[in-house]
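Researcher: Please translate sequence to structure tokens.
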Amino acid sequence: MFTAADRALFDAKRDGRDKVVVAGALNDSSPQLVFNRFVGRASELRALVMALDQSVHGGPQTRMIIGEAGVGKSTLVRQLLPESRLRGAVMVTDVQPAGDLLHLRVRLRPAAAPSVASP
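Model: Translation complete:
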């Protein structure tokens, strides 16, 4: 069992971070990654949607998402894009390294209203 797990870990590291390896798999067919499903982080996404609503109805909002590389910070923010578009809001992000962590800053604000020329 440990031998299969070690081999799977070695294969995953060798082939890159977007590789799925099943320890002790009986067939040689490669498992497929499913990117169209977002699992977990519901409370964090709700908090970002609330900040988005506050930015549309009040003033601009800024949120920091802090974590190690590869834990899903960017994916979480990408889940906010449809909500941002529905509300006509603008979302700007930037990433700042801080030691072993990354700080992902999300700025939310209402889209500029189109200017109307005076007659």
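Researcher: Any highlights?
Model: Helices lie at 2-15, 42-57, 73-86.
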